Structure prediction request, 130 residues.
Amino acid sequence: MTHLKNIIHVFQQIKNPDDITKEVYRDSIVKKYEILEDQLWKLLSKVFKSWGLELSNPRACYRQAFKEGWIENIDTWNDIVSSRNATVHVYNEDDYEKIKNKIIAQYVGEIEKLLENIKKEVIDCDVWNS
Prediction:
C-alpha cells in the first residue's frame, strides 16, 4: 500500500508531465494496484480459512468481509474486482486511464479502510496477542 500511495503522490506532484512520464506512472500505479489487490484477497482468504471458511476467490472473500462489517459498500468492491480483472485485458489507453483514475480517487481509500479493519479485528484482537 505504501508503494502505491508513494507513486500516486509523486505523480501528483509533477507539473505538466509529458506523455511518456504519464504512461510510466499510470502503468506503475495500475501494476502496484494489481499486486496489492491480489495480496489483499489472499490475506482475507487465509484469515477466513483460519475461521473454518474455504473462500478461494476475491468476490467470495470480499462478500465475507462485507458480512463481517469490514467493508461498507460491496458494489465498490465488485467494481474493484472488475477493474482488477480488466487490467489484464485492457488494450485501449482511455480505459486503462479510467481504471488508473478510479484507483487514485476511490480504490486506495477503500483498500485502506479494509486493511485498517483487518488490523483492528484480526491482528490487534486479543486472541492473536495471547
